[in-house]
Design a protein that fits this description.
heterodimer, A: 425 residues, mainly beta, 20-stranded parallel β-sheet, eleven-stranded parallel β-sheet, 7 helices, 33 strands, 39% strand, B: 364 residues, alpha+beta, 2 domains, six-stranded antiparallel β-sheet, two-stranded parallel sheet
Chain lengths: 425, 364
Amino acid sequence: MKKFLYLVVGVLILIFVLWLFPEPMPEYIPERDYIDMEAEILESFILAKDSSVIQLPEGHFLFSQALSLDDKKHLTIRGMGMDKTILSFKGQVKGAEGIKVTQCKNLIIEDLAIEDAAGDNLKISDSDSIVLRRVRSAWTGKVSTKNGAYALYPVLCSNLLIEECEAIGASDAGIYVGQSKNVIIRNNKAYYNVAGIESENSSNIEIYGNEAYENTTGLLIFNLPQLTVYGENIRAYDNTIYNNNIPNFGVKGSIVSAVPKGTGVVIMATKNVTFSKNTIRDHKTVNLSVVSYELFAADDDPENTTLDQEAENRGIRSVDSDYTQDVTYNVYPKDILIHENAFENKFSFPTLSNDYGILMFMKNKMTIPDIVYDGILPKNIPLQSPEYKICLDNNGEINFVMMDAANDFENFSNDQTPFDCKMIL
Amino acid sequence: MMKVSINVLYILLLLLGACLDAPKVTNAPTAKRVVPIQPLLSQKTNEKQKLSEYGFFEAPLSDLIPNPRVYSYEVNTPLFSDYASKKRFLYLPDATQMEFSPTASTLHFEKGSVLIKNFYYPTSDGQERIIETRLLIKEKEGWKPLNYIWNEEQSDASLNYIGADIEVEWIKNETHIQKVNYSVPNLNQCKNCHISDSDITPIGLSIAQLNRKNPLLSVDKNQLAFFQEAKLIKNLPKKNNWSKLPVWNNPLTGSVEERAKAYLDANCAYCHSPKGSAKNSGLHLNYTEINTRSRGIYKPPVAAGKGSGDLVYDIVPGDPEHSILLYRMKSKDPSIQMPELGRSLVHEEGIALISEYIQNLQKK
C-alpha cells in the first residue's frame, strides 16, 4: 500500500514537472542568402551525359522545382562543401523531392547540402553503386511534422556508401536505406529527426562510426511486411547513440510515429543482426529494444493508422494490420547478437509520456532498461529456440528486461542468464 | 456627393477584387539572379541556339513556308495537346528517302533527317501565335529531341532544355476566348512519350497515320502516294495494303468504336502498348490490339494507386462513369490524369467520343 502511494505521488510530481517545463522542439536555423541559378543548374542536370561531372559553385541556390537524374552512368555531382554549396527547395512549386535519382549507375554526390524540399530531400531508387559523401540534408527552422519524410533516401538500391553525411529534421527518417543490399553507412551524423538512421528491409548492411542524437529514436533496424524484399545480415558497431528524447513529430499513422521518444535503438523483425561495441546512453524510455512486429501491430491505435494518401504517396510506411497475410514475412527478431556495448543513462526515471515508459515505471522498479526484449514468439516456440535466439555478451552491468509482452507481462523478468551467449553458443 | 461615394465604393470594390485576384503567395524566399562564372558541366553541347539557323523555312520564319527538302505531313488522328494546333514537317537530306519496313511500327529515316512539329494557337486578332517547335533529329546513335521556344515577336525561336510554362490566350472555334498555362516539356520529359523499348522513337509516322490527303502537299493526291511519286519513300507495300487509321472526329472515316480506338491509339498507345513505357500496366491501347482485356474491358488496374479513383475496371461496358479510363481522362490532377504529360485542360470532344464508345460496348 505504501509502495503504491509512493508511486502515485511520484507520478503526480513527474507530471507536474513535465507540465512546468514543456520540452522545446529543436531548431536548425542556418544563415541563408539565396541566389537564383536555377536555369543553369537545371540545364546541367538535364544535359548531363554518362561520365559527366556537374561542378556546383559556392552559394545558397534556391529552386522552384525538383532536380532529377534518370538512367545515367558514372556521373558526379560535386559542390564546394556542405557549408558552402547549398541547394534549397524552400517553397518549391514543382515536384516533391529535392533531388530525385532513378536508374543510375556509379553515381557520386558529394560536398553539398540539400534543404527544405516539400517531400524527400534526396531520393535515389533502382540504382547501383552510389556514393553519398559529405552531403548535409536538412530542413531548416523548428522541426515540424510538415518537414519532408526522408533526408537521404536510397531505396531499391545496391552497393551503396553513405559516409560523413548529416541528416537534420526529417519527419520520418534522417538516413534511411530501404529494400536495398550491400550498404555501408559510416561516420555520419543524424539529429533532430524522428528516426536518426534506419535500415529497412535491407540486407548485408554495415552501420558504423555514426552518431545519432537528439532524435526521437536513434537507430532502427526494421523489417516491415508487404514489401518487395526482406532484410538480413546487419552489423552495427562503433556507433554512438545518445540522448534521442525529442517528442515524436512523425506523421500520424506512420510506422515511426509508433516509436516512443527516448528509444535509443530498435531491432525489429529482422534476422542475423550483430550489434556490438556501440555506446548507447541517456534515453528516457529504453536504450535498446529487440521486438517483434506484433508489438507494433498491437500498439496500433485504429484512429492513428489511416495514413493519408498524400503521406503514403511520399513513401511513408504505415503500420500494416494485414501483416499476417504476408506468409513470407518473418514477424520476430531472429539470431540477434548483442555484445561489448557500453550502456549508460543519466536519466533515472522512465518518461511517462508513453506506454513503455509507464510500463517500466510500474514493472521495472521505476528504472529505465538498457535492453528490452519483448519475448513474443510464434505459438508453441519456447524462448531462446535456436532459430529465434537473442544473445547478450559482455555488455557490462546492464538493466535488462524480458517483457513477456504476449502474456500480459506475466513472466516479466530481469534475468539475463537465459540470454547469455556463453550459455547458448 | 452621392456620385462621389459611389465612385469610392467602386474603387473599394475594385481594390477588393484586385486583392482576391492577387496570385497565391508561396512561402518561397526571394533570390537574386546570378549566372555561373564557370561552366557547371564538364562537357559542351554544340546544338544550334536558334530555329532560324537550320534554314527549314523561308523568311519570315513564322509563316512556316518550307524550303526545298522540307515537306509538310498530316496525321489522321493527332495527339491532343491542350487544344494547340500543329504544323508538321519532315526534312530529308539530299538523296535520302524514308523507308517502310513491315517489322517496324514507324518509318525509317536516314541520318540527318529532322521531324519538325510547330505548336500554335489562333489568337483573338485573327493571327496565330506559335509557342514552340519540337525537333526530332536523326543522328548516328538514334533520334535526338530538341525544343525551341518562340519569342513574343514571333521572329525566331530559342533552344530550350529545361521547359517552360507559358500563359496563352487563344480563341476556340473562332468565338470563345480561352486561357491555358501551356507547358513546354523539358528534355527529359520528351523521352516519357517518345520511348519505345529503350530507344527514342517518332510518333505518328506510320502508314496508318499518314494514309490520307494533305492539301499542303497536293490537292488531289494521297500523301503517301505523293511521297512515293516524288521518290521520298521506298519499299512501300501495294496501295491496297496500306492500313488506315480513322480520323477520330470524322464519322465518315469509321464507326464510333473505330474512331475511339484511333483516338486511344494516338493519345495513349505511345506508352500503353507492348513496347511502350506503360507496358507493365497490361493496358494496351494500340489500334491493332484485339484482346479485349488488354484493351481495358473488365480489366482491373495494376499499379494505378489513387489513379483508379476507387473504381474496379479500366472499362466497364455500358458504364462510362465507372470506367477508370474515362475518370483519368477527365481529371486535371497531375497525380491522376492521363496522359500524364502535355495536358492541363480536359479534352471535352475526346471524352465525348470515348464515353459514347464505352456506353455502346456490350455488357457481359
